[in-house]
């Protein structure tokens, strides 16, 4: 993702703000300018709940070079109450214990460190609900 886009989308991504179409009620995360369901251009801002259900996952054994120290790791798709689906790494649980349908909570954590300057990138990770 390009740095300008990250900076532009950061506030609503970090607050888990979604856009709900005022005409048809479709929910989009991240925000959209035009509703893909009805073409409407007016949205209400809603907050996505922090707890969702795991609908699918996979275990990555051969990751990209920047994630080689974390291998193997699980990536999951969680569906939230508002209908939003988010993909993120599933952490704090052994891969063998991950089950579709389990409740997960979204947290912000370090995702990667970039370059020699060590710029830290933060993002979503899913944690089992305790």
Protein model, in words:
The chain is mainly β. The protein folds into two domains: 1-47; 49-130, OB fold (Dihydrolipoamide Acetyltransferase, E2P). The protein has one helix at residues 3-14; strands at residues 17-21, 27-28, 43-47, 51-60, 73-80, 85-90, 103-114, 119-128. A five-stranded mixed beta barrel has the order 4-5-6-8-7. The protein has a three-stranded antiparallel beta sheet with strand order 2-1-3. Strand 7 (103-114) and strand 8 (119-128) form a beta hairpin. It is globular, with a radius of gyration of 16 Å. The mean pLDDT is 88.
Quick structural summary:
This protein has 130 residues and is mainly β. Helices cover 9% and strands 45% of the residues.
CATH architecture of the largest domain: Beta Barrel
How far from one another are the termini?
32 Å
Mean pLDDT: 88
Summed up, the domain count is 2
The beta-strand count equals 8
The CATH topology assignment of the largest domain is OB fold (Dihydrolipoamide Acetyltransferase, E2P)
Q: Report on the biggest sheet.
A: 5 strands, mixed, barrel
Shape: globular
Taken in chain order, the helices and strands follow as HEEEEEEEE
Radius of gyration: 16 Å
Low-confidence stretches: none
Strand content: 35-45%
Fraction in helix? under 10%
Total count of helical runs of at least 4 residues = 1
> Could you give the order of strands across the largest sheet?
4-5-6-8-7
- The protein's oligomeric status is single chain
- Backbone structural class: mainly beta
**CATH classification, class level of the largest domain:** Mainly Beta
């Amino acid at each position: 993702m390009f740095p300008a886009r990250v900076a532009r989308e950061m506030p609503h991504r970090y607050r888990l703000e979604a856009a709900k179409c005022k005409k048809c009620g479709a929910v989009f995360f991240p925000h959209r300018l035009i509703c893909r369901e009805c073409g409407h251009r007016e949205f209400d801002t809603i907050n996505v709940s922090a707890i969702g259900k795991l609908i699918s996952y996979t275990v990555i054994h051969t990751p990209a070079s920047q994630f080689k120290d974390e291998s193997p790791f699980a990536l999951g798709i969680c569906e939230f109450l508002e209908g939003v689906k988010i993909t993120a790494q599933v952490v704090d649980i052994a891969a063998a214990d991950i089950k579709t349908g389990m409740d997960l909570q979204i947290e912000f954590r370090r995702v990667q460190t970039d370059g020699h300057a060590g710029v830290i990138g933060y993002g979503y990770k899913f944690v089992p609900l305790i």
